[in-house]
Amino acid sequence: MKQKTIPFYRPVISEKSVKAVAKVMRSGWLTTGKYAQEFEKRFAAYVGGKYALALNSGTAALHLALDAIGLKAGEEVILPTTTFAASAEVVEYFNAKPVLCDVRRDTQNIDETKIERLITKRTRAIMPVHFGGHPCEMNAVMRIARKHRLVVIEDAAHCTPAYYRKRPVGSIGHITCFSFYANKCITTGEGGMAVTENRRWFERMKMMSLHGLSRDAWSRYDKKGSWYYEILDRGYKYNMTDVAAALGIHQLEESNGLWDRRRKAVERYHRLLKGIPGLRLPAELPHCKSAWHLYSIRVAPAQINRDKLIRFLAEAGIKTSVHFIPLHLHPFYRNKYGYQEKDFPVAFESFQGSITLPLFPSITEKEQRYVADKIRAFCS
Ligand SMILES: Cc1ncc(COP(=O)(O)O)c(C=O)c1O
């Protein structure tokens, strides 16, 4: 009998979006242009932000956000240890220090009650990461930021869309950074967006996203454009192509529908996995709406061997992942800052039991039943 395989992720790309991308490819204009501009306009409206800048990754958005606030060498940015490499590496780019914080057991988000004790004279910013698309406790984060005059840069890579107390993520912090990587809620293959209310920061991010060239460099190939430009700072090459933006526009149009399908799949997992001893299912707090980018379960390590379960599922053709190996356990951060495993006890313990199951809009009930049956069989 043929072995079943359930991928970790399967993107949903509509025929309409394939046609839109093909149209751009035939248009003679492939790089940043009117599609990128249109995507920015629509995305800003979708997340309730004022200015949106389309970029070639979420990492680029985080990097430019820190550049825009003028982060300096030796300054500090507070962020959770449970996150992806990108959130901290961008701080390192400035020779600044990522100061790690433990997370909450229920959402895996930064523990807002532990932020204030990490603040020093050198702290410039807090970077909450909305784990799996579940918003952090943003009222508390913003209150702390106001009190200590800090900037809040949200890592919203998992959040298209997510809501905190009915406010869309994108309308809360000072700069919010989204990712459109291949397996994210909406995708442009690779891509990202930085959203802010602050015009000065927006202009700076825009300039630095294209080599630090003077503003009119964007239109230098237009009919009205001029060949002349000036280098105003040493910038980066982070702009989004129109090919990617054409896909982004359609993904955004389909975003609520994709979100509904993920939510339905989450409800099915909740139902199918209920009552398995030693298993903790992901939560959604009542005042939040998660984007449900990830369905991360936790096993009680004393009862269930996580690594064996992952291998057992892999042998059954089910691809899983682990989100995330906390930053403080990685050689680079451990060696540079001398972290010990137990410095962040909640993150460490959660990581030891963590498995992320396949979750994507087109996952079928049959596929989910198969996953749940295998987990139940292993756990009993
Ligand atoms: C929490 C988090 N932040 C940032 C990023 C970076 O996004 P990108 O891959 O678009 O650069 C990712 C990507 O996986 C992520 O998971």
Q: Overview of this structure, please?
A:
- The protein is of the alpha/beta class and about 375 residues long.
- The protein folds into two domains: about 15-255, Type I PLP-dependent aspartate aminotransferase-like (Major domain) (Aspartate Aminotransferase, domain 2, 3-Layer(aba) Sandwich), CATH 3.40.640; about 255-380, Aspartate Aminotransferase, domain 1 (Alpha-Beta Complex), CATH 3.90.1150.10.
- It has helices at about 15-25, 35-45, 60-70, 85-90, 140-150, 200-210, 240-275, 305-315, 330-335, 345-350, 365-380; strands at about 50-55, 75-80, 95-100, 125, 150-155, 165, 165-170, 175-180, 190-195, 280, 290, 295-300, 355.
- Helix 4 links the parallel strand 2 (about 75-80) and strand 3 (about 95-100).
- Helix 1 runs antiparallel to helix 7, helix 2 (about 35-45) runs parallel beside helix 7 (about 240-275) and helix 3 (about 60-70) packs parallel to helix 4 (about 85-90).
- The radius of gyration is 21 Å and the shape is globular.
- The two termini are about 25 Å apart.
- Bound molecules: pyridoxal-5'-phosphate.
- Pyridoxal-5'-phosphate (PLP) binds near residues 83, 87 and 129.
Structural features:
single chain; 380 residues; alpha/beta; Aspartate Aminotransferase, domain 2; Aspartate Aminotransferase, domain 1; 2 domains; seven-stranded mixed beta sheet; three-stranded antiparallel beta sheet; 13 strands; globular; binds pyridoxal-5'-phosphate
